[in-house]
Design brief:
The complex is a heterodimer of chains A (655) and B (295).
Chain A (H helix, E strand, L loop, with lengths): L3 E6 L11 H8 L5 E7 L5 H13 L4 E6 L2 H14 L7 E5 L1 H5 L5 H19 L9 E3 L3 E5 L3 H12 L3 E5 L14 E2 L4 E2 H14 L3 E4 L2 E9 L2 E8 L14 H5 L3 E3 L8 E3 L1 E2 L11 E2 L5 H5 L4 H5 L12 E7 L1 E4 L4 E2 L16 E3 H8 L20 E8 L15 H15 L4 E6 L9 H10 L4 E4 L2 E7 L2 E8 L4 E7 L1 E6 L1 E2 L4 H8 L26 E3 L9 H19 L3 E3 L5 E3 L9 H5 L5 E7 L6 E7 L9 H5 L5 E3 L4 H10 L1
Parallel strand pairs in A: 1-2, 1-3, 3-4, 6-7, 6-18, 7-10, 18-29, 20-27, 21-22, 21-27, 22-23
Antiparallel strand pairs in A: 5-30, 8-9, 11-12, 12-17, 13-14, 15-16, 19-28, 24-25, 25-26, 31-34, 32-33
Helix pairs in contact in A: 1-5, 2-3, 5-18, 6-7, 6-15, 11-12, 12-13
Chain B lengths: L1 E5 L1 H4 L4 H14 L2 E4 L11 H4 L1 H18 L3 E3 L2 H16 L1 H11 L9 E3 H17 L8 E5 L21 H8 L3 E2 L18 H17 L4 E4 L2 H9 L1 H8 L7 E3 H8 L17 H6 L10
Parallel strand pairs in B: 1-2, 1-3, 3-4, 5-6, 5-7, 7-8
The chains are: A alpha/beta (655), B alpha/beta (295).
């Protein structure tokens, strides 16, 4: 016979004013299996908990029902209380007589009756509770970092510093990401490369950090603490162990190709490193453009290489590695402004994106830092910057504000004036959003010290006339239409998710939003977590972020990974599903509805037929205890600990 | 190809030549038009400013007749087109408005009659290839700019047959007829129609800019698809010339008139004499002033 204790909480007047708690406690004492019942003003307070503890001892209770607020608030408190008294913490049930009763009803008599019903259900359920013990799972203390931009680099440094292994997988031939393309950074005007490259060198030197560039993660299986990633190391056609990075090959290569790194404003060679400070300094042959691969002649790089590092026969290699945590640092791309027909639909050569301007103004960029018209190479005397191209535009772009454009546009205006003090710079803006430390001051500096002209209004059309661009727009502060003849127009294009973000999300089993940005675990309280344990987010793959925010989230994500690594085992969730294989027909309807991929197929030997047959099996470490499988199975083969068929039936029968 | 024809007030009055040329061109192309009997105002410019329900009930009164005729509706005026499309879209998607409007009008209508603009029909339904075959008179000497105004391509979710910022249907049409369609930046600039009577000074400036841009690009004429654009650009040239000391005399033709010329019709069959800024000099200079018999 069970010995159940029922503890009814007044919650001050929150419950007691609507529910007759004394009467409820009195009647609860007569429920089957109840050995003791009482009330207290605040059951969650120290004296309240002490009251429960003493009752457990005094009345030799083996199960407890607390009738109080929602279990999402104090279930852990009362479980701890049971545990202290030597009871299994799962021998507890909470009857929610506040949110689901006293707060939503006014009639005292009816509310009292309902509270008693709720308690009766909890008592019936708890009689069927069994002690539950959480399982433990081992943890591989290595972090996989997808993406080698500033985000991935910072995360790797932090994991490496703590003494754990980090592996960066970067798609491009070098780490560095977007930041490597930038010229200066706002609001301090530090040279981006000068502050980035020391970090690139630091990761390449750290023995705890391994870098795979020109590589992609193709598949991820497993679960928190125990992920297995399949990584494709794409053929560089250069033996990284032999290559000294001397540069003779790319100097000698005769094939010139439009440079992706320079945003197609400059050229690179078929064998190339994307930029001079590339890490690793090992070139890659772009086989789609290489004369040898395309036409079967040339091989100049091979003959010019003194150490014989060029290897045309090299093939992709697919490796598998184990990880305990995954940090997603895949970054962003920029909005393609050809969607704006009124801005020339991407056909006007002198209408460029902000990222192209970064390359142009960069002294190691395609123009050597000179601001020239792409159409004819003439010096730019007048430049117009247009903010919010694609951002805050529900018709053609994305609804959100890209957050950085106001700042980088101010920086661009300032840099232009620095390069060209006699030139004119205009900025068309909707609002200036400069919320950041020293940001507003920076924008004011561009306006006041450098004389960048700010016009509040949208640009309605950009067209060519007499070999120049005409920018037609509104100045809403003076209420006039304006037309500016410009040599160059720079569009502050929105920061958007990468084209293959959805594929990455599906591979990792993490959700994404309507803009294909990855969804954080909680918008306020879990900003770098995801709903998939062990997968963390950093940088602009979650939402547009500037460098300081990106670095901060990188450190936050690595702290989360390090917390996982702090022990060599993880405590699992005890309220998990299990399959009664004697009932399982192997239809796998449960697998279809499991949002966590926690159900796998296993073979068992059938006792009757003596043949092997497939049945469902729950991977406990992946199960979140949602119960989907238990309701979808026609045979009732899955059963969820803590919410078993027996417990739920008992609850229903008690009403 | 047969449509219920909704001319609207302009085409029966100030834009008579749009109506004349529409009918002439459709006849020549074998597009049958049956005018909606007892049609009423579409509600443009006044109804939708005063009552949303009125602005829906008026077009629906017309569209329900087209539905009873078992035909889709053909419209030429860009303002009528906009109002009829808006009403139809609401009758399809907005359950609340549909019920209210049907009660007011005493009908059962839920957007059955598709509303098409003649430009859309010619380019996308009749087809430019078919049209090219009907051309009997070369317009290759004629340099035109297409002026779309505001309502023909906007809002895109309602009218949806051309790009809202860089519409090209009229340019494609002109090119198919053999004319030289020039690219220009003012094709969707505002002509100021809604300020026509209240702020004429603004209208003169806006129309001056449009005319100037067309002349700068070397256009012989401006081709339009809206009677309101037409009245502003055609009628106000003398006023503009006085105000700005300019010498504009740019013929403003309806696209239907351009099609008619290419089909070999005579200017008077296309109502050419009804323009305030006379196109006769241009037509004579280009040899387009006589009827051309079909070969």
């Amino acid at each position: 016979m069970t010995r159940i204790g029922v503890f009814v909480c007044w919650c001050g007047s929150n419950i007691a004013s609507t529910v007759d708690v004394e009467k409820v406690a009195e009647l609860a004492a007569d429920l089957p299996g109840v050995a003791y019942s009482t009330t207290y003003k605040y059951m969650c307070s120290d004296p309240g908990q002490k009251l429960i503890a003493e009752a457990i001892k005094e009345h030799d209770l083996d199960r407890v029902v607390v009738a109080a607020c929602s279990p999402s608030l104090h279930e852990p408190t009362f479980r701890g209380c049971l545990e202290n008294e030597g009871l299994n913490p799962y021998m507890l049930e909470i009857a929610n007589i506040r949110e689901q009763c006293s707060w939503v009803h006014t009639d005292r008599e009816e509310a009292t009756e309902k509270a008693l019903d709720l308690i009766g259900m909890a008592v019936a359920k708890v009689a069927h509770n069994a002690p539950l013990v959480a399982s433990t799972i081992p943890v591989t203390r290595r972090a996989l970092i997808i993406g080698g931009g500033i985000s991935g680099i910072q995360a790797a440094i932090d994991v490496g510093l703590a003494g754990y292994e980090a592996v960066i997988v970067e798609r491009e031939p070098s780490i560095g990401g977007r930041m490597a393309q930038f010229d200066k950074t706002f609001p301090t005007l530090d040279c981006a490369a000068c502050i980035l490259t020391p970090k690139m060198v630091a990761v390449s030197r750290n023995p705890n950090i391994k870098i795979y560039t020109h590589a992609e993660v193709e598949e991820v299986t497993g679960y928190v603490g125990n992920y297995v990633a399949k990584i494709r190391l794409r053929a560089r056609s250069v033996d990284a162990d032999k290559c000294t990075g001397c540069g003779t090959c790319w100097q000698k290569c005769p094939k010139r190709v439009s440079s992706e790194f320079d945003q197609h404003l400059g050229m690179r060679k078929a064998i190339h490193i994307p930029f001079p400070q590339a890490v690793p300094r090992v070139p890659v042959i772009d086989r789609d453009n290489c004369l040898w691969f395309q036409r079967g002649k040339c091989r100049i790089c091979e003959t010019s290489c003194e150490v014989g590092a060029v290897d045309f026969e090299q093939e992709d290699e697919v490796i598998e590695e184990e990880f305990g945590a995954i940090i997603v640092a895949t970054g962003f791309t920029t909005f393609d402004h050809s969607a704006y027909k009124e801005y020339g639909a991407g056909q006007l050569k002198d209408v460029i994106s902000g990222l192209q301007f970064e390359r142009m103004v960069n002294s190691s960029g395609p123009t050597g830092g000179r601001i020239l018209r792409p159409s004819d190479g003439k010096e730019v005397k007048t430049v117009v910057f247009v903010a919010c191209v694609g951002s805050r535009d529900r018709a053609k772009g994305v609804a959100y504000c890209s957050r950085l454009c106001c700042m980088y546009t101010a920086k661009h205006g300032l840099l232009f004036k620095e390069h060209n003090p006699d030139g004119q710079a205009y900025v068309f803006y909707m609002d200036i959003r400069a919320a950041g430390k020293n940001y507003e001051e920076f924008v004011r500096r561009a306006q006041e010290e450098f004389g960048v002209n700010y016009l509040r209004g949208r640009v309605s059309r950009i067209f060519e006339e007499d070999g120049q661009l005409v920018v037609r727009g509104a100045d809403t502060l003076s209420g006039t239409q304006v037309e500016i003849k410009a040599d160059l127009v720079v569009l502050a294009t929105a920061l958007i998710a990468r084209d293959d973000a959805v594929d990455v999300a599906r591979m990792l089993g993490i959700p994404y939003d309507e803009n294909h940005l990855f969804t954080e675990g909680h918008p306020k309280l879990a900003p770098v977590e995801t709903v998939t344990s062990g997968v963390f987010l950093t940088g602009a793959c979650q939402a547009p972020k500037d460098i300081p925010d990106t670095v901060a989230t990188a450190s936050a994500a690595s702290a989360k990974a390090l917390a996982l690594f702090s022990s060599d085992v993880l405590t699992g969730e005890p309220m998990v599903s299990s399959i009664d294989t004697s009932l399982c027909s192997g239809c796998f309807a449960c697998q279809e509805v499991c949002p966590f991929g926690a159900i796998e197929e296993v073979e068992i030997r059938d006792a009757m037929t003596r043949e092997n047959r497939p049945v469902a099996h729950v991977i406990e470490s992946l199960c979140h205890g949602c119960g989907n499988c238990t309701v979808v199975c026609r045979a009732g083969a899955p059963n969820l600990a803590g919410f078993s068929h027996e417990q739920i039936l008992a609850e229903l029968l008690a009403v | 190809m047969k449509y219920a024809y909704y001319p609207g007030c302009s085409l029966h009055a100030t834009a008579k030549e749009y109506d004349i040329s529409t009918k002439a061109v459709c006849e020549a192309l074998g597009i049958e038009l049956e005018e909606i009997p007892n049609w009423v105002c579409c509600g443009a410019s006044s109804a939708h400013m005063t009552s949303e329900l009125l602005s829906l009930a008026l077009p629906v009164s017309d569209l329900v007749i087209a539905k009873d005729m078992g035909l889709d509706t053909l419209v030429c005026c860009a303002a009528c087109y906009s109002r009829l499309r808006v009403a139809n879209a609401q009758m399809v998607s907005d359950d609340g408005h549909r019920a209210q409007v049907n009660e007011i009008v005493g009908t059962e209508y839920s957007g059955e009659s598709q509303v098409r603009h003649l430009l859309d029909v010619l380019v996308h339904e009749y087809g430019l290839d078919a049209l090219r075959e009907k051309v009997t008179r070369e317009l290759s000497d004629l340099r035109v700019v297409g002026y779309y105004g505001c309502l023909l391509s906007r809002p895109p979710e309602i009218v949806a047959f051309d790009d809202p910022e860089n519409p090209t249907a009229m340019d494609e049409l002109a090119a198919a007829l053999g004319a030289k369609a020039l690219d220009w930046p003012n094709k969707t600039e505002c002509c100021g129609q809604s300020l026509s009577l209240t702020r004429t000074d603004v209208v003169l400036k806006l129309c001056r800019d449009i005319l100037q841009s067309a002349c700068d690009r070397g256009a012989d004429c401006i081709v339009v698809a809206c009677p309101l654009c037409h009245s502003n650009l055609d009628m106000r040239q003398a006023q503009i010339n006085r105000q700005y000391q300019t010498q504009f005399g740019v013929p403003i033709l309806y696209f239907t008139q351009l099609v008619g010329l290419a089909l070999g019709l005579e200017p008077k069959e296309l109502g050419m004499s009804k323009h305030i800024t006379s196109p006769s000099k241009l037509l004579a200079a280009k040899g387009l002033d006589k009827r051309k018999e079909t070969a």
